[in-house]
Amino acid sequence: MNHPPSAHLWPDNVRNDEGTWSMAGLTFAELAERFDTPSFLLDVAALRRRARRYREVFQGAFEAAGAHVQVYYASKAFSSTAVLRWVHAEGLRVDVASHGELLTAVRAGVPGPDIGLHGNNKSDAEIALALDHGIGRIIVDSLPEIDQVAELARIRGVRAPVLVRVTTGVHAGGHDFIATAHEDQKFGLSLASGAAAQALELIEANPHLELRGLHSHIGSQILDPEGFAAAAGALFTLRADLAADGGPVLPEVDLGGGLGIAYLPGDQEPNLEHIAARVADAVLAASEKDQLPLPELSFEPGRAVIGPAMCTLYRVGTVKPVALDDGGQRLYVSVDGGMSDNLRTALYGAAYHADLVSRHSTAEPLAARVVGMHCESGDVVVRDVRLPADITAGDLLAVPATGAYGRSMASNYNLVARPPVVAVADGGAREIVRRESIEDVLALDVG
């Protein structure tokens, strides 16, 4: 068996044997027969390897300086009890951004100290559950939230450990929708306006809050480490200013994450060792300048852990040749899913790849567009790809790099049931998130 074309896009254990593709010893045709389509297929060994690698690389980059580093898995990319157990077993902590994500982490057995709670509009129920579970950190996102967290902590007779999310003005990423550190957006407390400094003062003065440190998140799908280096400089300057004004030396700094992945054959995976080393250099330089002890550092790689470990398997339905204005032709290949299981293409033009995975074809590759079955002209899964001219109904297509935000952003648009997530390992497979039935969907309609 051979690695597939553009092997870097696919989970580790995907193979292509003369057109018959498989994952961890099971062919895609077998998986389609057993679990139906569309289905998200998760390569468990690939997920665990990526989680372990991110932890080891970041810890290794700071080891020489004696800095302690934690790496957090982003629940928002994809969350299930099985996945959170696996990544936690590989040494990752877990960040959550909703009551449901927090409850999933609790049910997965992740200890409170290993969980961080994000969110720009946290509910009392979320904060209460976090405090009752002994959460390690609540990332404060606004001035009103300070009083909210303090009151719930007072009622419980505890001190809530908090970090302040700082809007540094440094932003990076592939689209404005996912750049999160410029001033005109909903997240964080501005460094430039003084709101971040005000938050630090208020928290330090509150007996029900324990000020643990600073947090920054500059965006997503980031491929260049310079944004992290700039954000680190801004956070360390704020930390030094607080100490110089008689405040505490904050013991933690979280530089966020949002590292990118490869989506297209021409893309390259970011050089993780280079990114970690560059950020380590920036942190050490800032620390030497401030002459303060290094804090405990943390990072949140985001999609980079889960994204490439999963792919989506579809069955082809209608194939329609469409004439183009330039005299050419494009095949519109309809599959049995669409924007209900991969919203990113419609939401902000994200680019994906697809391959025929159920048979070998010698037909000429043609320009194609993989579209969904929804009543929406923007229902596109893969905007531009070349597929065999003889692709036909019943063929299986797979789209790589869908582990992040595919299932987590899935919807019931057109009252379509959401796909399952199937974990594949060592020649075995099982649903870790079951397929919804139409009865599940309609059960919410109480008439």
Which stretches are low in confidence, meaning pLDDT under 50 for 5 or more residues running?
A: 173-181
**What top-tier CATH class of the largest domain fits best?**
Alpha Beta
* CATH superfamily placement of the largest domain: Alanine racemase
Helix and strand composition category: alpha/beta
* Count of domains: 2
Compute the number of strand runs: 23
Tally of helical segments:
12
Please bin the fraction of helical residues. 25-40%
**CATH architecture name of the largest domain:** Alpha-Beta Barrel
CA gyration radius, whole angstroms: 23 Å
- Share of residues in strands: 25-35%
> The CATH topology of the largest domain, please?
TIM Barrel
Largest sheet: 9 strands, mixed
Shape descriptor: globular
Summarize model confidence as the mean pLDDT. Answer: 93
Report the oligomer.
Answer: single chain
